[in-house]
Known about the structure:
It is found in: Cytoplasm; Nucleus. By secondary structure, the chain is an alpha/beta fold.
Amino acid sequence: xxxxxxxxxxxLGGPGAGKGTQCQNIVxxxxxxxxxxxxxxxxxRQRKGSPYGELINNIIKEGQIVPMxxxxxxxxxxxxxxxxxxFLIDGFPRACDQGVxxxxxxxxxxxVLYYECPEEEMLxxxxxxxxxxxxxxxxxxxxxxxxxxxxxxxxxxxxxYNNKVEKVSCTNTVEGVYDETKKIFEKHFP
Length: 190
Ligand code: UP5
Ligand code: MG
């Protein structure tokens, strides 16, 4: 079981909005542990002996969503193993039922940080990152699919959490976006 005072913040936003980038700054200033669901899935995909390697790879390439049992198991295990009490859960939940299940089985989220970004900006960032990232989903075909899944399945999560959502616009510089982010964390974790 997790410590009683465990705090979780869901960090959401479309593909390439800047979730991972901002999480690094929050970790530095507010002592959180950053757990990217996508990173955990990519790690699991590479792990020798993982029964899910191929499944995860295919789903990620198609921009689809990995079954939540797998993702929640990886997140929960990483939280227990880390031993800390403050977690940024980046890129999860990607569908409403995933949020419900995680909050039931693991811990309720304190709030939801939503990075809002227009698709054309996310597209530009991902195409640029794709020149060097080596990610199987940083190509135009996969990116288009990721956008559709975000719009249809993941955006409703933001609507579901409604009054628990802190929205930050991402069309600024990394520093500008972080200024806004920082204010939110200072409010919730004084
Ligand atoms: N950049 C960042 N901020 C910038 C700024 N303000 N101005 C200019 N440039 C900026 O940033 C993306 C790029 O933009 C970087 O090059 C950065 O320098 C630049 P990053 O911080 O990496 O954005 P992020 O939002 O983290 O983008 P990411 O691609 O990681 O988001 P996704 O949500 O698409 O990817 P994730 O790794 O979370 O998931 C990948 C796949 O895994 C999913 O598509 C899905 O198939 C699967 N998945 C699940 O199935 N379930 C899950 O729970 C999670 C993932
Ligand atoms: Mg990321």
